Amino acid sequence: MLAVVAVTALAGCRVDGLPGNPSPSPTSQPTTTPTSEPTVEPTAEPTPDPTEEPTGGPGGPGSSDGVEVSVEIEPAFSMPNLVETRLKQARADLEKRGAVTVVVVDARDARAGALTGAANGWSVCAQDPAGGDLVRASQTVTLDAAPNAKQCP
């Protein structure tokens, strides 16, 4: 069985230069002059000299071309899970973490809009963003609250 596999494998091989086989096709030879277009195959020899200076744009790396770049990093924090927390404590926690805008809505009637005078004795029923999400300080945090946790939908 092994002999059959070996003969089958060799049957597809061609040996150039033997009687009955055509001569090999000419191969590409490396050129000594640069070409204007990229070569199809790799060149035979590497570039003799490395590039003298790194190429990094006008003036090179580390130089200034008169353009100033200013980057402002906005503070962010991981949103805590405030569900079933007293509204007063939830607001204090968010303030401590750097939240700028906290909107409280009545969890029993979302169409009522923001509650401007929600009592601090209320409980948080839901929140947006969710606990664990990354929150930017400029982002609005919405807390759905009800007078007590039993009234949460």
Class by SSE composition: alpha+beta
**Distance separating the two termini:** 76 Å
- Order of strands across the main sheet: 2-5-3
Number of strands: 5
Describe this entry's structure for a reader.
About 15% of the residues are buried. The protein has helices at about 1-10, 85-95, and strands at about 75-80, 100-105, 125-130, 135, 140-145. It starts with a helix and ends in a 7-residue tail after the last strand. The strands form two sheets. Strands 2-5-3 form a three-stranded mixed beta sheet, with helices on one face. The protein is built from two helices and five strands.
Keywords:
153 residues; alpha+beta; 16% strand
Secondary structure layout plus pairing:
Elements: H1 2-11, E1 76-78, H2 87-97, E2 101-106, E3 123-128, E4 134-136, E5 140-146
Parallel strand pairs: 2-5
Antiparallel strand pairs: 1-4, 3-5
Q: What would you say about this model in short?
A:
This protein is an alpha+beta fold and 153 residues long. 14% of the residues lie in helices and 16% in strands.
